[in-house]
Structures are given as C-alpha cells and as structure tokens.
Amino acid sequence: MTADIIPHTSTEAHQPCWQEELAAAIRTPADLLERLELNPAQLDASPVAQQAWSLRVPLPYVQRMNKGDIDDPLLKQVLPLGAEMLAAPGFSRDPLGEEDANPVPGVVHKYQGRALLIISPACAIHCRYCFRRHFPYEDNTLGRKEWQMALDYLASDKSISEVIYSGGDPLAANDNFLLWITQQIATIPHIKRLRIHTRLPLVIPSRIDPSCLHWMTATRLKVVMVWHINHPNEIDQAVSQAAQRLKRHGIELLNQTVLLKQVNDSVYTLAELSEKLFDVGIMPYYIHRLDKVSGAAHFEVSDNKIQQLQQALLNALPGYLVPRFVCEQAGALSKLPLPLSTEATAR
Ligand SMILES: *Cc1c(COP(=O)(O)O)cnc(C)c1O
Ligand code: SF4
Fold it and tell me: Rounded to two decimals, what is the model's pTM?
C-alpha cells in the first residue's frame, strides 16, 4: 500500500533554491576569512569599509576561491579594505553623471535607442569596485504606479528599441514581477529587444530555474543576457550548466569584464577568460576601464598598461574573442573605445 511513496528521508542532498542561496550569503569579513582559512591579520580588511558598504558574497562564489590565498582574485573583488577609505584625486561618488540621466524614477536614458531600467536595487554580491555603490537607490525603489510612469516613458519615445534590465541586479527581483514587467514592455510596439545585465547567474547559477526561463522565453522580445565575469576562476561546472540552459532556450549570451589591478590585469588571465567564456557559450563583449568611483582607486590600471594589454590580447587571440576595450565618460553619446598604443605594433 505504501510501496510507491518515496520516503522523505532520502539520502539525496537538498539542493537549495536561489532564494535560499541568497539568504545564506556571507555578510561579514570574519566569516569569509574563516571559511578561506585566512588570518585577518594578513589582510587590510577594514571594519570602516565594511560599515560603509557591507560585504556580501553567496557561497557558490566563495567555493571558487582558493583556500589560504590572500591574493585570490575572487576574494579581492569582495573584501572590504582600508584602502577604500583613502580619498583619491579624480574619483567621485557619481563619476558617470547618472543622477542627471534619470528622466523618471527607475529609468536611466543616456544613449540613443537604449534605455536602462533599474529593476532591483539589490545585488547578490557586493563588488568593491562597483560604480553603483553610491547610487541613490532609495529614490529608485518603485511601486506599481511609478512603474507605470516608467513604462509610459518607454512608450512615449519611439526611438527606444531596446530595454536593458539593470540595477543593482535585475535578477534579484522575483520572477512574478519580471514576468509582469516583461509582458508590459512587450506591448510597446517599437521595443524589439530585451537585454539583461546581471551577475546573479554567475554567483548563484541556480537562479536560472524554470520560472526564470519562463518569462525570458514567453515573450516576443529577443533576449540578450550580458554576464559580468572578470576572471576565469569564476567559471565552474554549475556556471557552465546555467549558460547551457539559457542557450538551449535561444538566449544570446555576452560578457563584460571590468579591468582590475591584481585581479585580471594580465594578458594570460584575459586570454584564458576569453577562451573559457567561449567554451561555455558566452561571447566576450566589453572590457571596461574602471569607473572612477570613490573607494575603488586601488583597482585602477594605468592607461599605458591598458594599451599594452589591448595590443597583446589582439596578438594572442582570434579577433572574435577580443572584447572591445571601452570607458564611460559623463555626457558622452556612447561608451568610448580606448586608444591602441601608437608605438610600432608590427614585428
Ligand atoms: C552601458 C550602457 C548602455 C548600453 O550600452 P551598449 O554600448 O549598447 O552596450 C545603455 N545605457 C546605459 C546608461 C549604459 O550605461
Ligand atoms: S551592480 Fe553588478 S558590479 Fe555592482 S555590486 Fe551589483 S553585481 Fe556587483
């Protein structure tokens, strides 16, 4: 009679869903360093920096860090350091002038044809170099009425053909909301494409679950996802599988990288990153020069070094695996290409 009842005491491990992974994210430097078997005294970990913008890093990402390595390139991206508190000339709180390109709450419209929606103020991971760390998110947390105003703005400007979900991290929002907003956007005839700028599938690959795939595919809009992967060590089996799920559903996958001192500022690392991205079905798109946001000066790579890296990468890889080197400038009409070295580049 009970023969076909599967007992709950199965030995199979419980696979946490993405919301559980998010809730279980590490939030203190002490906890992170203990898991990595590191002695806090070896690092410039700073309680002041932690207080200014707290550490947040989900376990699937922590598991890709090397234990006992104070120079781990993933650790460097998330650990609050004393160096963040030093003022640096040319670094400011809003280096991109985004607070001025905010026509209605929730919308950033800087470039022709593309408008960015701040879908969720939250992120699954706090990246120390992020230019959004000082963005006035509180003013951009919207209710349904304000979302209607944002949608009205998109509908009123026929030049907009692409909507970009951004944040924060747009995939930190729940799928019911994402389904609703995507359906609303699809009713605007001049919008053709939906782009999703996210780090969540990288840090928590289980985010790409059936309900996420549902709203991404149940739409007439062509969907492009732009990942944000900075180092080859960030790509593991679970990340690869999440990318496969998206590809199988016809979603285009691109990647953007931020150039970060002592994280990925070597030709070897960048070439390996491009190769590994291609292996998992993601095309390199952009490499960004660091935005000069206060607290991030210790990540800055010199212009001279950037030129050398760009040339060396062109020499090392097939053209389609070389991302475009760009920077952002307040008031510019697009991201700007970075110059190549004018020195002789031939053999
Ligand atoms: C980067 C960005 C875009 C997209 O630019 P692409 O060059 O099309 O990738 C759009 N809007 C804003 C505000 C941006 O920062
Ligand atoms: S917006 Fe992107 S880069 Fe910035 S903290 Fe969030 S996930 Fe990191």
Answer: 0.94
